[in-house]
Amino acid sequence: MLFATIARGKKVGTRLVPHRFNDNRYHVHLGRKGPYIPVTDYRDIPSYLANGYSLQMSDAAGSHTPRLISPQSIRGWSTNPRDLLSLAL
């Protein structure tokens, strides 16, 4: 499961998960101002993260607007196949 934790500000410690938009897709961005790529399948997100794309994430309750989170700050994925195996166990 992909997640990130807010490290600064009023909401420190809030856990973020990939935000699913109204079109039932997740959005990945190559840059802050660039266009987004809609991703339908949750399992495809790690391949975009491995290529440097950032992911729109929000809290599970949906009370925060989605934030663009860089791949370095997202936990639950890895480019190393051994790490992926240990995460599945």
What does this structure look like?
- By secondary structure, the chain is α+β, with helices and mostly antiparallel strands.
- The chain has one domain.
- Helices cover about 15% and strands about 25% of the residues.
- The chain has helices spanning about 45-50, 80-89; strands at about 5, 15-20, 25-30, 35-40, 55-60, 65-70.
- β5 and β6 form a beta hairpin.
- The longest helix is centred in the last third of the chain and has 8 residues, at about 80-89.
How far from one another are the termini?
12 Å
Category from helices, strands and their pairing: alpha+beta
Biggest sheet features: 6 strands, antiparallel
Number of helices: 2
- Work out the count of structural domains: 1
SSE topology sketch:
Blueprint: E1 4-5, E2 15-18, E3 26-29, E4 36-39, H1 45-50, E5 54-59, E6 67-69, H2 81-88
Antiparallel strand pairs: 1-2, 2-5, 3-4, 3-5, 5-6
Protein traits:
alpha+beta, 89 residues, disordered C terminus
Short overview:
The chain has 89 residues and is α+β, with helices and mostly antiparallel strands. It has helices at 45-50, 81-88, and strands at 4-5, 15-18, 26-29, 36-39, 54-59, 67-69.
